[in-house]
Design goal:
Number of domains: 2
Radius of gyration: 24 Å
Distance between the termini: 74 Å
Number of helices: 11
Largest sheet: 9 strands, mixed
Shape: globular
Order of helices and strands: HEEEHEHHEEEEEHEEHEEHHEEEHEEHH
């Protein structure tokens, strides 16, 4: 029998490959439709956004070297809310805001108001700050301790904080009113914006790019679609300081541009950014608006990269927990050391010593700190962890590994770990960072009046144990 020539064999191969690819696409579509059908009636989702750009020039957050108020804006700042409700009526609202952070009393006040007005439980509210250093300052203690601002600037900050608080409470209500049937799914991509910023030198660890340091380049993405498949919201995260810029214009920095680019690519969808554990990570390179745009594009590309893969359905039920880990603070220096420091030419060292001496004199020295930890469990598909403060990357790397369990990659629950949640009081070092020393470990406390002494090496164990406790709590149904 005469064999087909090479040309015919190639035709047969192409036909076979086309048939095989067609079958594969059909299987993927069928699986996606089946997953969507399975989710029908499982979720409701609601969205709301509000502009939070100050209407007047005011002092900006971050960078103690700043010496004047803001001078205009690059683009608007926003607060955005994503409300979710499962079939049992459990509600969870994520609020993402273009701010450097929230004081604890800010969270407490919002929590109380949304509970009273909308019946939202404390564990059902998660506030996340993008940690942009190109936003307004709302922390009164920071304004007085760090910058000696004139009274009118302090008053502007106070009024702005009150305004934003009112807007967020209203925002939560509008998101809850917007609840409508939805499908949830999870994907993740990667971005190369962040670089570890802790570099070992002859002077110890300093803030400088360290390409060999630990980093988390993951871009987790939660997709919210209508029952017909139309995209309604894209919640994404990244573990990196929002500090490309250090000028005097209001701007969401790379996270603001990333949201803008995602929304431009997906008209009609709301993009929300949730900051990860980037306490020891900086966007690299820095200091120009063009780099902020490029970094925003890189993170947005990480979202688009994720969307190429098949989304994993996220099913209910929704289980929530909020608790406190009692973190231990180191003993203060001796009176002699503090008196010596009180004579320092560095005003931050001097003030820190003076404040600590006053606490010692009155017997009110703090030895512990109540640290907020939040967990949201989406069935067996996604575990979301919200940690307070400027959390270093070790926490996300460790918790993602431990909470995913011993399953093969992509087989166990997806794990999303966010920092800057509910309160930003200062840095949260890991045991490793504490042992190494440097800014995130100890030096940064000069610029905060919340924790006047560093954490002890137990900090990582206490936080991680609390996360596991809350995960066990939600899984047990208690």
């Amino acid at each position: 029998m005469k064999e087909p020539n090479i040309k015919n064999r190639n035709v047969y191969r192409r036909r076979f490959l086309s048939w095989a690819v067609g079958i594969l696409i059909f299987d993927i579509l069928a699986a996606t439709i089946a997953d969507a059908n399975e989710q029908q009636g499982t979720w409701k989702a609601g969205l709301a956004t509000v502009v939070t750009t100050p209407e007047q020039s005011m002092w900006m957050a971050g960078y103690a070297a700043r010496n004047k108020p803001s001078e205009g804006k690059v683009h608007d700042l926003h607060a955005k809310a994503l409300a979710l409700e499962d079939v049992q009526g459990t509600r969870f609202v994520i609020v993402a805001v273009d701010l450097i952070g929230f004081p604890r009393e800010f969270r407490d006040s919002v929590e109380k108001e949304v509970g009273t007005r909308y019946g939202l439980r404390p564990q059902g509210l998660l506030l996340n700050a993008s940690h942009t250093h190109s936003g307004p300052e709302i922390r009164a203690w920071r304004a007085t301790q760090a910058w000696d601002l004139p009274p009118e600037q302090i008053e502007l900050g106070r009024k702005y904080a009150e305004t934003v608080q009112v807007k967020i409470v209203d925002l939560v209500g509008r998101a809850l009113q917007d609840l409508a049937p939805a499908q949830l799914s999870y994907v993740h991509g990667r971005a190369g914006v962040a670089m570890n910023r802790r570099l070992l030198t002859e002077r110890g660890y300093v803030i400088s790019p360290n390409a060999d340091g630990p980093v988390d380049q993951d871009v987790p993405v939660l997709l919210v679609a209508a029952p017909d498949g139309k995209m309604r919201a894209i919640l994404f995260g990244y573990a990196c300081h929002n500090t490309t810029l250090d000028f005097y214009q209001f701007c969401g920095d790379y996270a603001g541009f990333a949201q803008q680019y995602v929304e431009e690519t997906h008209p009609g969808a709301v993009a929300l950014f949730m900051a990860g554990c980037g306490g020891d990570q900086n966007p690299t390179p820095r200091r120009t608006l063009e780099w902020a745009k490029q970094h925003g594009r890189a993170v947005a590309n990480g979202v688009e990269q994720a969307l190429v893969s098949k989304p994993r359905p996220v099913r209910g039920p929704l289980k929530l927990a909020l608790g406190e880990a009692t973190l231990e603070l180191a003993a203060p220096p001796s009176i002699e050391e503090l008196k010596k420091q009180a004579n320092s030419t560095n005003k931050y060292e001097r003030r820190h010593a003076e404040d600590l001496l006053k606490e010692l004199e009155t017997g009110r020295t703090r030895s512990t700190y109540p640290y907020l930890v939040q967990v949201a469990q989406f069935g067996d598909d996604l575990t979301m962890v919200g940690l307070a403060g400027e959390v270093v990357v070790d926490y996300s790397l460790r918790l993602k590994k431990e909470l995913a369990g011993p399953t093969a990659p992509g087989q166990g629950p997806a794990v999303w770990v966010a920092g800057y949640c509910n309160e930003v009081f200062g840095y949260v070092p890991s045991q490793r960072v504490l042992q190494e020393g440097g800014y995130e470990a100890r030096d940064s406390i000069l610029y905060y009046d919340i924790t006047v002494t560093p954490f002890t090496p137990s900090v990582e164990t206490l936080i991680v144990d609390k996360v596991h406790d809350l995960v066990r709590q939600v899984n047990s149904g208690k």
